[in-house]
Amino acid sequence: MSEESPFADILLPERPGLGWFVIGMALLVLPWPFVFSGPALFVPVLIGSVTLGAGLGISWSVLCLRDWLRRVPINGLAVIAIHLATLANLELVPRLEISLRAQQAGLDASAWWRSPDEALPSYRVGEGSERFVRAAAPGAEPDAVVAYTPVALRRWTPFGLREGCWVVVRRNGSPGVVRVKPGEPRPAW
User: Which of 35, 60, 91 is the endpoint of a domain?
Assistant: First the structure.
């Protein structure tokens, strides 16, 4: 006599309920608060949430979707969609993290420009940190670059770190973010 696993009803429900939708939503937003901690913490959380969310979504699509569409089509599609939506975090969360780092680097560099006698500020590259560099011959126009990041800020991808952007400070004290397409050279400042 074979008994069914006690987890079968939990992991392969006959009808997807609100509980599974809430779990999917939690997996979707789980990595976002960890962005403020840097790649050392948000990457493992991101990988865990995507693995669990997308794994359940793909598994249910294969094993349960036909039954769910007959019994409760809207609930079934909603639960599977929210779990598969965790895959979008692989692109969105690293971009949010690099945007926050670029903003912080720009604010630090703007503060340096208000009192340029101090040492140039440092910024987090991705793994490690670097210092801003003064532009060799800044122009007299207000939007001329006076300091820039010599090494691009890098963002995490599933295939390794990729260059994301450079941060510049203009003569008027405003920070700027310069993005280039992969393979293109950095603009000369």
Answer: 91
